[in-house]
Every structure is written in C-alpha cells, then in structure tokens.
Amino acid sequence: MLRLLGNVLWLLLGGLPLALGYAVAGLLMLVLIVTVPFGIQALKLASFSAWPFGRVMVARPGAGPVTSTVGNVVWVLLAGWWLALGHVVAAVLNAVTVIGIPFALAHLKLAAAAFVPFGQTMVPRAEARARDLAVGVAVASRPSSVAEMEGSGG
Q1: Does the structure show a pLDDT above 60 at 147?
Q2: What is the pLDDT of residue 58?
Q3: Which contacts (CB < 8 Å, 24+ apart) does range 93-97 have?
Q4: What DSSP designation does 98 have?
Q5: Under a CB-based contact definition with an 8 Å cutoff, are residues 56 and 125 in contact?
Q6: H or E element at residue 107
Q7: 6, 15, 23, 137: least CB-packed within 10 angstroms?
Q8: pLDDT for 79-126, tens place per residue?
Q9: Distance CA 133, CA 120 (A)
Q10: Which residues pair with 57 in a beta bridge?
C-alpha cells in the first residue's frame, strides 16, 4: 500500500512530466532505424521514471562493457543530458518542501540512471534481493524514509 501511495505521489511531484519526456525522446528515436536501441532504452526509463518505487536497476547479465560504454556515450549525446537535467531540476523543486525531500533524492538517483541506461535492466526489488543482484539505481519502497533512501544502494 505504501509503495502505491509513493508511486502516486511521485507522479504528482515530477514523475509524470519526466516520464513523458522519456517517452517523447523514445518515440523520436524509434522513428530512425539507427536509433531504435536508444528509443527502447528511453521507453524503459519512461516506465521506471513513472513508477519507480518497488523496482531497481541492476547490471544486465551478458552486457558487454565496450558496447554498454559506447551506447551510454551516444545516449548522453542524444537525450541523456537533458533528461538528467530534468531530474535535477525536479529534485531542486522537490527539496523546497519537507514532503518532497525523499522525492528529491529519488530524482537525483534517476538522474544517474538517465546517464547510463545501457548494460542495466529493471527488476522488482524482491527479485533483486532473491537473486542477490548488485543494485545500480534503487528508489526506496517507502518514500517517507530519508534514511532508507540513502541506504538503498543507489
């Protein structure tokens, strides 16, 4: 129930506009054949940005370090920098209010995800724990706990 409440509040406090930004970037990249892999990553990040609580980004098994690095560099040039900037702006705006501080921290973690989507995948938090996966980016399942967000591994 708290996860649902956190995700609904998240949508109201900046998640929806940023998810739409990811979706627009993804759709634009899907138009060109060459940028289809980047469009797919943008749509995955749109999903994560819209409903982040209870899911984490982990290293994708079998992801090659060279291809992931090249993909991430091209990604930053195409869309990553302005999507990350959107998260930073949303973090600053959320940090102004007491209730928004945990969401501000979550936006900063998602800004990091906006820079390096290649070589990572999203899984439910319970699956990451069960499979003992290294968490790259995580948003706390209860947004009311700042201490939990700081210790969530992202």
Answers
A1: no
A2: 80
A3: 93/14, 94/13, 94/14
A4: T
A5: yes
A6: helix 101-115
A7: 23
A8: 888 888 988 998 999 899 888 888 888 888 888 888 888 888 788 888
A9: 11
A10: 122, 137
User: b vs e for 88-99, b when ≥16 Cβ sit within 10 Å of the residue's Cβ?
Assistant: eebbeebbeeee
Tokens read off for 13: 């406090």
Beta bridge partners of 122: 57
Contacts of 36 (CB under 8 A, 6+ apart): 29, 30
Tokens representing residue 32 in the block: 């060109």
Nearest CA to 69 out of 114, 113, 119 is that of: 119
134-147 in b/e form (b: 16+ CB < 10 A) is ebbbbbbbebeeee
CA angle 46, 126, 42 (to 5 degrees): 15
**Residue showing tokens 């900046």:** 14
pTM: 0.74
d(CA 148, CA 139) in angstroms, rounded, equals 9
Q: Residue 149: phi, psi to the nearest 5?
A: -65, -40
Return d(Cα 29, Cα 64) in angstroms, integer.
Answer: 22
> Which residue intervals of 12-100 are DSSP H helices?
16-31, 36-50, 65-75, 81-95
